[in-house]
Fold this sequence. Notes:
Layout: H1 3-6, H2 25-36, H3 43-50, H4 56-80, H5 87-108, H6 115-126, H7 129-149, H8 157-226, H9 231-257, H10 264-277, E1 281-283, H11 295-316, E2 320-330, E3 333-342, H12 354-365, E4 369-375, E5 378-386
Parallel strand pairs: 1-2
Antiparallel strand pairs: 2-3, 3-5, 4-5
Amino acid sequence: MTEDQWAGDKRPETQVRIGQAPRVRREVLVKALWIGVWLVFLSSPVHDLVAGDHTQGATVAGAIGLTAFVGAYLTLVFRNMGRPFDPSFAVTLLAVMGVLAPLLNYTLGDAWGGLFVYVSVACGVTLPLRAASWAIPATAVVMYLVALHNGRPGWDESLLLVFLIGFAMVGVGQLVRTTIELRKARATVAHLAANEERLRLARDLHDLLGHSLSLITLKSELAGRMLPDHPDKAAQQVADIEQVSRQALVDVREAVTGYRRPRLAAELAGTQVALTAAGVTADVPAEPDLAGVPEESESALAWALREAVTNVVRHSGADRCLVQLTHRQTLDGPVLELSVEDNGSGGAGSVPGNGLTGLTERLEKAGGSLEAGRAGHGFRLVARVPTAPSGDVGSGA
């Protein structure tokens, strides 16, 4: 699944895109219609202009002022509804509306009082909550003072409308902002999920190909040495190489599709073959006791065994290797412990490699842990996983 699919970009065409800029002409028209329908409250100022009750100069000035006011309102609401506050842009347009509304109402009469409703709406949908909480009451106070100057009672239903619509639009703005944040969080989750899938694939391919290619290299070298004097044995090694390469191809395909879970018993058998082919004397348990071990824990231990054996074969220079599986009881509950110890002079350096880093992540995901370092004259790797589901660990069940 791609990140775009995780983020839900394949939306129905009729879905409302809250908090997002319109992408096509249809969405622009829908948004413009939704905002423009509320311009019905401008009917009183328009009727006042066409009624002919003012001088020609006052009518022209009123028409210009109303056009500028509506343009500022539509630009502000259309571009900034619910989006992060842009001081340089929004404050300028709010200042234009904040000046034009009282000026037109003061000079042209009570019919222009509805402009304060639009100022309140613009403050509610564009300003942050704290700024809107004082800007809306301030708009109502200015409207009250202008009404007193015009000889109208200061308190009426229009003042209540400024408060109610303004704070209602604050709620709408908060809803849009929350939707934007949720969409960003969803995209982040999708990105993290995609990264986790990439890490899983990288770990699987590293563990699979590192082990298989090491075994193929060893058997190829062994077949080359056997070829002059023991062609039959060399042919057997070549047949083993073919089998290992075919199995590696199958494993890679399964890892890519995400279905592969290695089994610990199979990895123990492969460990015996790999160590013997490398000339390492191996002490490997024949049949592991996996009673009560969850599949995820067993898979994590199988990966740990594969990585440890690959390091023994490629880096340690050891001639002996001891593999142990032990059930232990800890304060956190029962665990199954895998120990791989060799007597080589090589091993991991001071900085963990990609294999041990990926292995640590894999074990931690299964609720386990990893310890790796020098032990006496060799190197020791210890991996632990819980042998009971996480809900039962420490429960006394």
